[in-house]
Structures are given as C-alpha cells and as structure tokens.
TrEMBL record, chain A:
The lineage of its organism: Eukaryota, Metazoa, Chordata, Craniata, Vertebrata. It is found in: Nucleus. InterPro entries: Mediator_Med20. The gene is MED20. Its main location: nucleus. This is Mediator of RNA polymerase II transcription subunit 20. Keywords: Activator, Nucleus, Transcription, Transcription regulation. One of its GO terms (cellular component) is mediator complex. Component of the Mediator complex, a coactivator involved in the regulated transcription of nearly all RNA polymerase II-dependent genes. Mediator functions as a bridge to convey information from gene-specific regulatory proteins to the basal RNA polymerase II transcription machinery. Mediator is recruited to promoters by direct interactions with regulatory proteins and serves as a scaffold for the assembly of a functional preinitiation complex with RNA polymerase II and the general transcription factors. It comes from the Eukaryota. Component of the Mediator complex, which is composed of MED1, MED4, MED6, MED7, MED8, MED9, MED10, MED11, MED12, MED13, MED13L, MED14, MED15, MED16, MED17, MED18, MED19, MED20, MED21, MED22, MED23, MED24, MED25, MED26, MED27, MED29, MED30, MED31, CCNC, CDK8 and CDC2L6/CDK11. The MED12, MED13, CCNC and CDK8 subunits form a distinct module termed the CDK8 module. Mediator containing the CDK8 module is less active than Mediator lacking this module in supporting transcriptional activation. Belongs to the Mediator complex subunit 20 family.
From TrEMBL, chain B:
Belongs to the Mediator complex subunit 18 family. Component of the Mediator complex, a coactivator involved in the regulated transcription of nearly all RNA polymerase II-dependent genes. Mediator functions as a bridge to convey information from gene-specific regulatory proteins to the basal RNA polymerase II transcription machinery. Mediator is recruited to promoters by direct interactions with regulatory proteins and serves as a scaffold for the assembly of a functional preinitiation complex with RNA polymerase II and the general transcription factors. It is found in: Nucleus. It holds the Pfam family Med18. One of its GO terms (cellular component) is core mediator complex. The keyword Transcription regulation applies. This is Mediator of RNA polymerase II transcription subunit 18. One of its GO terms (molecular function) is transcription coregulator activity. It comes from the Eukaryota. Component of the Mediator complex, which is composed of MED1, MED4, MED6, MED7, MED8, MED9, MED10, MED11, MED12, MED13, MED13L, MED14, MED15, MED16, MED17, MED18, MED19, MED20, MED21, MED22, MED23, MED24, MED25, MED26, MED27, MED29, MED30, MED31, CCNC, CDK8 and CDC2L6/CDK11. The MED12, MED13, CCNC and CDK8 subunits form a distinct module termed the CDK8 module. Mediator containing the CDK8 module is less active than Mediator lacking this module in supporting transcriptional activation. The keyword Transcription applies.
Length: 212, 191
C-alpha cells in the first residue's frame, strides 16, 4: 500500500454527521473522483483479565484487534505504543480461546464505514465513525498509491488534502515521525486508525467546526 | 480444525529406508526439507494450567510468514480411535510475533530447532524430523541433537467430527510397518 494519512473531519456547523459526509463526498465528486465501492475499518478492545494481572505484576494493558476491508484476509492486533502484529483471520478464533485471559470490552467496539473514491493516484475513503448505534465522527483516509516512503510524498499528500479539506487539513501523522525513510506498511495505517478511534472515544460529543 | 496425530521414532541408520518408502507411498512432489525454529510460550493466569502457544519460523526460507499454533487438550473420546485428536488453531503472522506475545504477557518456556523431511498424501502430512536442543538461548547456530533418532509424525487437520480420517491414518500407518510402528500416544504417559 502507498503512504496513507488518516485524519478526523469535524462536523460542519449546524449540520449532522451525515450531512457533513455528503458535503465532503460532493466536493470529491466535483474534483473528478470516481466512486469505487465501500470500505470498513473496525476495532475491538481487549483488556488483560484480572486473573492474569496478579501473577504478572504489571498494569493491565489494552490490546486492539482491528480489521480493514482493504485486507479482508488479515487481522491486525496492536498495543498503544507497542508492536502491531499482522496475522490472518484465525487470530479472531485465538482470541475466543484466550477469553479467560483477555476480556473484550464489548461496549467499546468502534468502526468506520463509508465510500471509496479513486482520484488518479489517490484513494480517498470518507467514513462515518460509529460506536454502537450512534455516529461519533467522520474519518478521512487518503492514500497516495505510487509512493511507499513517507518523507518522499508528504508535501504532495498535504497539497491534495488541502484541496478538499481546506482548513481542516491535518498535520503529518505521528507514525511518519521518526521513520522518514522506512517503507510504509498497512500496519502504519492501522496505528493511525487506532489513534483516531481513541481520540473519538474520549470526545464527549461530535466535534463541530468553529465559525471562521 | 482438529488434527489427528500419531507418533513414533526411527533410528538414524533406518532413515534412508523410511524416506525411500515414503517417497513411494506419498504424493508425487519434490522432496521437501525444512529447518524450523520453534519457541513455546506460556501465559500463566489463575487457571491451573497455563495457556500454551507455539511460534515457529523457517530458518531456510527467507520471507516466509511465522506460524503461530494453539493446540487444545487431547480429546478423551472414543478409545477405539486410532489417532490422538486435539483442537487446533493455526495462524500465519508477521515477523514481530515474539515481541507481540511478550507484550501480551506470554513468556518463553523452551525452544528447539527441527530439521527434517515433509511428505503429503492427500490431506495427511507425514513429517520425519530430528530435534536439536539450543545450547545458548536465542542462538540457533549452536545446537546439539537431542537423540540418535528421527521423530515420525503423521497428522491430519480436518474439520471437527470427521472421524473417518483416523481410519485413513491407520491404513497408511500399516504400510509403514515394519520400518516404523505408528501408534496413538497416550497423553497421560507424557506427563
């Protein structure tokens, strides 16, 4: 996969999540982007069961198990500031076997679903982030396919993001930070989604864009 | 997925005869050898027995995914069944598996190197391999053979409930006599 930037789009003043998504997708269509199916990224949270904590002598950790429809045969498991494991979908079966040691925080399952747009070498995915029945925010993922080194194409990605996100264009993702010349991988995208989902979980309500 | 497994061993000097017979009996394919490094990880909780996971990587095939395997307790079902049956989950993973398992709280219990030959007959897998003890933890170049024999393992991974598989295994095992007598292991004897 190419270098990817995942960010959150605040909801437009006086509009709902769905209306803001529609505004954004209309802008993309006016730019000339073509709809190409749908996408979904989901995330379940597991925490170490109390029974395991005592013998380990360490604070409970949160483990995130994520799926991305772009990689239907894979499952991503990660710890915050820790390693990200890429495995096949049997990892979900293993988590069922491990339920005595890792418990799923059911209520915190979060996902983003929406449409994929192809615009030349860019793949844009605008999704509605939901937790249970409620829409909690908007995710925007932009991938620049031809390049796998972040430092080589960040300026180009930024320019493209500005063309349709305007003042809501994000800064460089933290995953790009220390590893300028490293090859970008799907695990880096999942880390960005994990950070986005955590940020959205902490937000009390849907953030609204300020009046300028 | 539930593997049926039978085990036995054959002394080093009988290896060539066994390989020769297996090449005749098994599917026609290029003989496949392997050199794998396996690490066994345990997660201790308040349950009586720790959770065991096996992480295996190929030492001679660069770029191959790591293999994570969970094997459940042997099913104490039908005593007439000819093979040991256990629940199993196989997962292919990226290379940072050991770091990830440590982060989950697993600790390595032991490790070893296995070198041998792999054959197939339909869905049956026959592996003839030697186990090597790793003398310095983490250093797979410094090993010594655990015994003077090769382990012979006949296994099948099949969906749960397919008992007819163990009959096929017994029939195949018959054809390897008298070179090797493959039998079901009594798990209690291993404890």
């Amino acid at each position: 996969m190419g270098v990817t930037c995942v960010s959150q789009m605040p909801v437009a003043e006086g509009k709902s999540v769905q209306q803001t998504v529609e505004l954004l997708t209309r802008k993309l269509e006016m730019l000339g982007a073509e709809k190409q199916g749908t996408f979904c990224v989901d995330c379940e949270t597991y925490h170490t069961a109390a029974s395991t904590l005592g013998s380990q002598g360490q604070a409970g950790k949160l483990m995130y198990v994520m799926h991305n429809s772009e990689y239907p045969l894979s499952c991503f498991a990660l710890f915050e500031n820790g390693p990200c494991l890429v495995a096949d979908t049997n990892f979900d079966v293993l988590m069922v076997k491990l339920k005595g040691f890792f418990q799923s925080a059911k209520a915190s399952k979060i996902e983003t679903r929406g449409t994929r747009y192809q615009y030349c070498d860019f793949l844009v995915k605008v999704g509605t982030v939901t937790m249970g029945p409620s829409a909690r925010g908007i995710s925007v993922e932009v991938e620049y396919g031809p390049c796998v080194v972040a430092s080589d194409c960040w300026s180009l990605l930024l320019e493209f993001l500005q063309s349709f996100l305007g003042s809501h264009t994000p800064g460089a993702p933290a995953v790009f930070g220390n590893r300028h010349d490293a090859i970008y991988s799907p695990a880096d995208t999942m880390v960005q989604y994990m950070e986005l989902f955590n940020k959205i979980r902490k937000q009390q309500q849907v953030p609204v864009a300020g009046i300028r | 997925m539930v593997p049926g497994i039978v085990f036995r061993s054959v002394l080093d000097h009988s290896l060539e005869s066994l390989i020769h017979r297996l090449r005749g009996l098994c599917d026609n394919m290029e003989p496949e050898t392997f050199l794998d490094h396996e690490m066994v990880f345990l997660l201790k909780g308040q349950q009586a027995s720790p959770f065991v996971l096996r992480a295996r990587r190929s030492m001679d095939r660069a770029g191959a995914p790591w293999h994570l395997r969970y094997l459940g307790q042997p099913e104490m079902g039908d005593k007439n069944r000819h093979a040991l049956v256990r629940n199993c989950v196989d997962i292919a993973t990226s290379e940072n598996l050991t770091d990830f398992l440590m982060e989950m709280g697993f600790r390595m219990d032991h490790e070893f190197v296995a070198r041998g030959h792999l054959f197939r007959k339909g869905i049956m897998k026959i592996v003839v391999y030697k186990i090597f003890r790793i003398l310095t933890p983490g250093n797979t170049d410094n090993t010594e053979a655990l015994s003077l024999s090769y382990l012979v393992e006949l296994s099948v991974v099949a969906p749960a409930g397919q008992d007819v598989v163990s009959d096929d295994m017994r029939n195949f095992a018959e054809q390897l006599k008298p070179l090797v007598h493959l039998e079901k292991i009594d798990p209690k004897r291993l404890m």
